[in-house]
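Re: [ENG-882] Designed sequences occasionally contain unexpected residues at chain ends

Forwarding the minimal case from QA. Structure tokens:
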């Protein structure tokens, strides 16, 4: 059912000054009327102070409510937002009162799902909403907001219109076959097709950065035991997450944390040291380290300042993106004139930490503060990439079907396929499967 009244706490539960409860669906105002003393609905989208009552008419809170008559609401349905007090009692009691009055507790993402089904936003924008809620770095948040505002949707819409033009042009060829010199020559058709194909490819090239931006770049600390990995991990995060001890082999499991460097999202992982070990648990940790190394977008190789790199460390640097952090620089006075490979750092003095954060962001995201992220839409998800890859494949097939020896009808069919791939990205072509996957990861109340 997509119209029955649903209710949810839209803010995080727990101790807080305020909380927000959302109610949406057909009959939402009747449900609200059973809970709000003298509910006023004559002034849409105005905050009204009211007393909220439980099912026996006892006040549970006093707060603001706003009524949004359909279709001018987030979901496109009649909707009421309640702003009540936070904490363990007021908001949960208000939700319980609304349920008692006939609303159903909402599923995760159900409000946004209704917004999509009612045409208030498309699927790409809905994904942007989820990404903004999940983001933990400013650039990531900006990319998500850009998507909510329709950046990627507009770009896809532009591609759709190009494809529709192409289909129209091809149908002329179907209707008047053999007229080589009709209003649209094969050369023109080919050029038109090549232009759309190039635009699809341009967008596809944003996928590696986009997907890395959404997930956060995986930066893995590696190096010999006791080289200062865990200390550096904590210092880069600014919180004590991993255990630091003088005992080699302390870190046995990988510790991961989401953070941001220079506004860019980073998944920082501390691992066990890379060395042979007889201790079974430590060996398992080392195995985990190897797996992390294989998955890393960047390896931060920790090497004590003032010593040469070992052959094993050189091996780690082969064939992957590696930055060398020279650790414990406070313990060694670097000899003037001797060039030290890597960025000199110390967790005691703080030397090099800022430089290192900057260098990591630069290495994995190409640096800058991301003006391109604001100006240009990115493909942030695998789903987007796969959709555009399908479109690109269909266009490549269409290309082979143009010309006197080709078949305009088949070419048009391929272009239709490309169009369908883009439609599925934006809209609810395959509603249950795609919508189910997307919205199951939402928060309740969104
Ligand atoms: N003086 C100094 N000691 C450090 C620094 N970083 C780490 N250490 C010490 O080196 C030892 C090993 O550090 P740890 O981070 O546990 O190394 P890991 O085995 O590579 O994780 C600990 O005793 C730390 O206190 C540093 O920048 N300066
Ligand atoms: Mg450690």
């Amino acid at each position: 059912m997509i119209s029955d009244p649903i209710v949810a706490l839209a803010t995080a539960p727990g101790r807080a000054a305020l909380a927000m409860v959302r109610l949406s669906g057909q009959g939402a105002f009747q449900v609200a009327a059973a809970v709000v003393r003298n509910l006023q609905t004559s002034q849409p989208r105005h905050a009204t102070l009211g007393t909220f009552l439980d099912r026996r008419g006892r006040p549970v809170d006093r707060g603001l409510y706003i009524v949004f008559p359909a279709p001018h609401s987030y979901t496109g349905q009649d909707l009421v937002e309640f702003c009540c007090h936070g904490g363990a009692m007021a908001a949960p009691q208000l939700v319980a009162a609304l349920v008692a009055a006939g609303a159903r507790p909402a599923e995760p993402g159900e409000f946004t799902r209704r917004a999509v089904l009612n045409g208030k936003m498309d699927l790409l924008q809905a994904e942007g909403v989820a990404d903004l809620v999940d983001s933990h770095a400013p650039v990531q948040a900006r990319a998500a907001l850009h998507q909510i505002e329709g950046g990627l949707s507009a770009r896809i819409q532009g591609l759709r219109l190009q494809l529709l033009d192409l289909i129209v042009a091809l149908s002329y060829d179907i209707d008047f076959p053999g007229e080589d010199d009709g209003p649209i020559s094969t050369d023109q058709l080919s050029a038109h097709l090549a232009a759309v194909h190039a635009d699809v490819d341009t967008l596809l090239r944003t996928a590696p950065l986009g997907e890395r931006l959404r997930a956060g770049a995986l930066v893995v600390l590696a190096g010999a035991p006791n080289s200062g990995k865990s200390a550096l991990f904590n210092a880069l995060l600014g919180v004590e997450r991993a255990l630091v001890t003088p005992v080699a082999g302390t870190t046995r499991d990988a510790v991961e944390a989401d953070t941001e460097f220079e506004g860019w999202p980073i998944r920082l992982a501390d691992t066990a040291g890379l060395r042979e070990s007889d201790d079974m648990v430590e060996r398992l940790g080392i195995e985990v380290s190897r797996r992390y190394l294989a998955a890393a977008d960047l390896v931060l190789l920790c090497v004590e300042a003032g010593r040469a790199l070992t052959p094993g460390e050189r091996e780690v640097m082969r064939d992957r993106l590696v930055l060398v952090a020279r650790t414990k620089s406070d313990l060694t006075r670097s000899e003037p004139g001797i060039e030290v490979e890597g960025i000199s750092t110390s967790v005691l003095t703080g030397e090099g930490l800022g430089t290192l954060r900057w260098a990591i962001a630069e290495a994995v995201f190409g640096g800058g503060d991301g003006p391109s992220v604001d100006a240009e839409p990115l493909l942030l998800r695998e789903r987007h990439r796969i959709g555009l890859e399908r479109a690109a494949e269909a266009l490549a097939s269409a290309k082979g079907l143009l010309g006197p020896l080709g078949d305009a009808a088949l070419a048009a069919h391929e272009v239709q396929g490309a169009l369908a791939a883009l439609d599925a990205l934006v809209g609810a072509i395959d509603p249950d499967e795609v919508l189910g996957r997307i919205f199951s990861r939402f928060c309740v109340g969104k």
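QA comment: On inspection the terminal residues look reasonable. The chain has a mean pLDDT of 88. Proposing we downgrade this to a documentation issue.
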